[in-house]
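SEVERITY: medium
COMPONENT: batch folding queue
REPORTER: lab tech (J.R.)

DESCRIPTION
The queue accepted two submissions in a row. Attaching both inputs and their returned structure tokens so the on-call engineer can compare them side by side.

ATTACHMENT 1
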Amino acid sequence: MNVLTLTNAADAPFMTQQMAALERRGVRFETRCVAGDVSADSPSESRGLREYLSFFRTVRQEVDGGYDLIHAHYGLTAPMALAQRQVPVVLSLWGSDVHGPVAPISRTCAPFCDAVIVMSPEMQNALGRDCRVIPDGVDLELFTPGAQSLARDRVGWPDETYNVLFPYAPDRAVKNYPRAERIVDAVDGTLDRPVALQTVSGVDHADMRHYMNAADALLLTSHSEGSPNAVKEAMACNCPVVATDVGDVRERLADVSPSCVAASDETLIDGLAQVLESGTRSNGRDAAREVSLERTTDAILEVYGDVTGLERPAKRPVASP
């Protein structure tokens, strides 16, 4: 199967690792990315009308390359994927393109796509239409539990401190770093050891497992999410998670202990304190098997098969940009 991937964040780890898993199953990809220097964490930033109009031309030139389908990642690439009639379109939405300012584009384009993939039932409800709910998969061979003392030596964190991992850049507004600071500050001084908020971003994706094994807990305080990979990767490392009730976090952590999912600062503060005081790792890896990379690969292959096997009308409807 030959697939043309459209994206505006070609280095997004959750996308590239899923594509690599699909390639091992026989799918061949060509990837085209919207021009511009932008972080995978913020795919809608630093891109203007000129870059997206140019991307229309790129896609139209590529569409005669013998592809079986186009897989558009992130809502802003959907209009380009739909500006052709020859090839079926699968659209994957990432979260901020359903809950943020890009949402109107995603909602407008979704009915014209042959299949829409979202990461959680919450995203499906927000989009207001039937979708395939497929969370991003976690690589259980890469993210594995390890000795905490060795991991702390590796990342340079002190043993005499409770280390709380915040795995995002502080300037990413949707991740709500000020709330994470507020929660950790409230817990610090109430336990037998100091509590430190360890902010980690910009490191190689494969190295994140060392920070998760070094941490006493991962703290997620996002305003909104789809299916946050950091939570699932922490689960795979048996790192306890304390999180706001966003995306599919409550579902993922339903049977994980110790963990905490809450809406209020007070409950998050109490939950973090209890997790740190317990001094134990979680049983998250067992729950993470439900969203292993192998399972999500199977699910996406099923979507690809359904879409390419459908008898499509001679002329597909085209959404206006």
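ATTACHMENT 2
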Amino acid sequence: MRKLVVAIVVLAGFAGLAGLGAFVVVLSGMQGAQSWSRCSADLGPWGDGAGRGERDAGSLDQESVGIVKSIIMIGKERDLPPRAWQIAIQAGKTESNLANLTHGDRDSLGIFQMRPSMGWGSVAQVTDVEYQINKFYDVLLEVPGWEDMQPGTAAQKVERSAYPLRYHEWESMAAHLVSVEGQVAGFSGCEDLPAASVLAGKALSFADDQLGKPYVWGAAGPDSFDCSGLTQMAWKASGVDIPKYSRSQYSQGGVHVPLTQAQPGDLVFWGAGRDPGAIHHVALYLGNDEILHAPQPGESVERTEIWDGGELLPTVVRPATDAPVPPQVSTPPSTSPSTPTPAPGDQSVAPSAPQPVDQPVRQPV
């Protein structure tokens, strides 16, 4: 009976948005389907709560629903496990919003933005839905150990993007869509987020060794640090590369996690009005409402209680081993009329003279 229900749902349930709604309803009542749907889809890798996978799936338009249907059907025909379908769905959603595009960056085309000039196939091939999906699976199967990777990481191995972390965003949606199979181990709900505990220990050990060293704007060791220089070098000591500046560390440094779920080694941020676009300070979380950071000119690397002051962001960043490696820049660019006004303390453009950090009053949370 279960096989019949699955066949009906997969073949007919994607006919339109109403069909997708029926697909979700049938899933919710299937015994065994919760093991993956609840663990991987409801929680997701970004820690933003129950129901996100279902909500994202319900927002797909007619074309996207048809492409998801094709990804699943071709995966089944090739006897590939549901994990492969999930990876393909995440890649397609990230690259094209699950649309068969006739445009893209340079000569990128189709669902997965495959480039004819890079050997993915002819223009006709990389805009043919069946060809694209089979080609994606062909390349995925050549990735060593793809079955044991986080799905977004496996998608990046195929796509080779300059922004690898973006594939993780759609894990909950993709897991929800393929959870008809059930009994598939989750990657992000039943286990911790990309394991950072061992690496975080190395990062914090490095940071501990810097206690007492003076704050110097733009410095990243070995004798002095600014706030983001300290966090960057601490994680570098554990083998993880993150960008230099605090705003870049927030947007490109790893996985976003609610502050309430912070673990030692996570990056904690402050910004005017709690705005990610106005971040001016970053610290390493130690646990028990304590941080380790390089505060401001005239002070030294220290441990202290975390404070709010109306600027503490509700989201921390957990550096990930597949975070993009930042470009190497010898010195920050100089200020010019075309450059933005630097944020105090952790500027991405150098001020004409050292500027004091406008630090909030240190009040424990």
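NOTES FROM REPORTER
The longest helix spans residues 62-77.
No errors were logged for either attachment.
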